[in-house]
Amino acid sequence: MNSDLEYLDLIDLISERHLQLRKRSEEMWNNHSDIYLSNSEWFILTRIYQKEQTTISYVTKHVDISRQATHKFIKQLQQKGLVEIEKHPTNKKEKSITLTPLGKECYEKNESLKAQLAIQIADKIGVEQVTSFKRILKENWGI
């Protein structure tokens, strides 16, 4: 057992592992790409990828980042050529946001890197453990 984690409670253990995984995932991406992306930018890209085409307000509501910061990250993603922002076809107050072909390529490459990380974890702790853990995480925790 990792002695740094030995005395943490459930909440702190989950948080610590999450931070470790995000850091490792970010390192893997940065070792394979010249386009630096923060975890916040990845959260935003994920929301856009899941919806194909969505609105900035949808993304803002579905990421745990302030509205101001979300807009800043979206602008950065646009400057990196990963998203396109256009006027919404039916709502003048809204703006549509979609991934560019480069954005889709980056997202899909990152998914592949995360899958490799998941395999490394399964090799270390066992496929059955990973399967059980995923099932537990998906259950209704009543919170």
Walkthrough of the structure:
Helices cover 64% and strands 9% of the residues. The chain has one domain: Winged helix-like DNA-binding domain superfamily/Winged helix DNA-binding domain (Arc Repressor Mutant, subunit A). The chain is globular, with a radius of gyration of 18 Å. It has 143 residues and is mainly α. The chain contains six helices and three strands, in the order H-H-E-H-H-E-E-H-H. The relative contact order is 0.11. A three-stranded antiparallel β-sheet has the order 1-3-2.
Keywords, please?
143 residues, mainly alpha, Arc Repressor Mutant, subunit A, 6 helices, 3 strands
What's the helix and strand layout?
Layout: H1 10-32, H2 39-51, E1 53-55, H3 56-61, H4 67-79, E2 83-87, E3 95-99, H5 101-125, H6 127-138
Antiparallel strand pairs: 1-3, 2-3
Structural class: mainly alpha
**CATH homologous superfamily descriptor:** Winged helix-like DNA-binding domain superfamily/Winged helix DNA-binding domain
Give the CATH architecture.
Orthogonal Bundle
Query: How big is the Rg?
Result: 18 Å
Instruction: Report how far the terminal alpha carbons are from each other.
Output: 28 Å
- The best one-word shape is globular
Multimeric state:
single chain
Order of helices and strands: HHEHHEEHH
| Topology, number of strands | 3
Point out poorly predicted stretches.
none
Mean pLDDT score, rounded? Answer: 90
Count up the domains.
1
